[in-house]
Design goal:
This is AEC family transporter. Pfam families: Mem_trans (PF03547). Belongs to the auxin efflux carrier (TC 2.A.69) family. With 304 residues, the protein is mostly helical. The protein is built from 14 helices and no strands. Helix 1 packs across helix 10. The radius of gyration is 18 Å and the shape is globular.
Length: 304
């Protein structure tokens, strides 16, 4: 019973904030969705990069200590893609539509606050390490997959590396490797701004739910199950292979159980890669998180 209560205390605040975003969008209608576009841009281009940089460059972040988690994040992304591939082929789904959401879970909007609630403020560097490693896989391998068969725009690799989130990750890792410390007032300001991105991400996820329909329910239902199940299968295998601490083990399982990322829908819309189907995967996946996130917590929390 105490374990169930702890799981509820972790996941309920996250879904309450998402519900508030959805309720506010229902109340205010189209106006709030237009306003949130600007808020999301600020969050993705300023607040989230500051959060990533401050977490990776903080004195508490040990690149060596988090190395196994970074490897786990990459292998979960790649392994989920391998496990989802035969499902896509068997059901006749376009791999460019189905595989990227299976490989890139909601480690930002949902994963960061969940990991903080589950393991405390000290878990932020590890949570960011998991998120940034999977983000790198998505923006390199998955976006390349989506672009396959299309005319490649010059400078696409440069645009990837120069995106605010990737720059923040690269600079943060460099600061961690070379032990570069920023002046305390500057670092504190960046950290405060960065932490503001977490509730904003959750609220905007709730608002974004207004734009998604159940039109392509079949692929959405399949994706909602395949994404967390494939992730948890990879985590079960890695649990036997990687020398993770008890806390890192819990972080890995929770990360593996997360649903597809909302960003997958935005990228699919940008490249016109069946965005309605990706939207259904994202929507139904985030609804199914009510089942799979507690499962990931149950597998990963001490006492299981």
């Amino acid at each position: 019973m105490p374990l169930i209560e702890r799981i509820c205390s972790i996941i309920l605040p996250v879904f309450v904030i998402i519900g508030m975003g959805y309720g506010y969008a229902r109340w205010r209608g189209e106006v709030v969705r237009m306003d949130m576009a600007s808020v999301n841009r600020v969050s993705m281009e300023a607040l989230a990069p500051l959060m990533i940089f401050s977490a990776l460059s903080s004195k508490s972040f040990d690149l060596y200590h988090n190395g196994w988690l970074i490897l786990a994040s990459v292998l979960i992304a790649l392994g989920s893609g391998l496990l989802a591939w035969p499902v896509a082929r068997a059901l006749g789904y376009d791999k460019r539509t189905f595989l990227p959401p299976m490989m890139y879970n909601n480690g930002g909007n949902m994963g960061l606050p969940l990991l903080l609630l589950a393991f405390g403020q000290d878990a932020l560097p590890a949570a960011v390490a998991l998120f940034t490693a999977s983000t790198f896989v998505y923006f390199s391998l998955c976006v390349k997959m989506i672009q396959s068969g299309r005319e490649q725009r010059p400078g696409s690799l440069l645009r990837l590396v120069s995106s605010p989130i990737m720059l923040a990750m690269i600079l943060g890792v460099l600061c961690a490797v070379f032990h570069i410390s920023l002046p305390a007032p500057l670092f504190s300001a960046m950290k405060l701004l960065g932490e503001a991105s977490i509730p904003i991400m959750l609220f905007s996820l709730g608002v974004r739910m207004m734009d998604i329909s159940f039109k392509s329910w079949h692929i959405g239902l399949v994706g909602a199950v395949v994404c967390p199940v494939s992730g948890l299968i990879c985590a079960l295998v890695l649990d036997q292979l990687l020398p993770l601490t008890a806390v890192q083990r819990g972080e890995m399982y929770l990360f593996a159980a997360l649903p597809p990322a909302v960003l997958c829908f935005m990228v699919a819309e940008q490249y016109r890669q069946e965005p309605d189907k990706v939207a259904s995967i994202v929507l139904m996946g985030n609804l199914a998180a009510i089942v799979f996130v507690p499962l990931g917590l149950w597998l990963g929390l001490p006492g299981h």
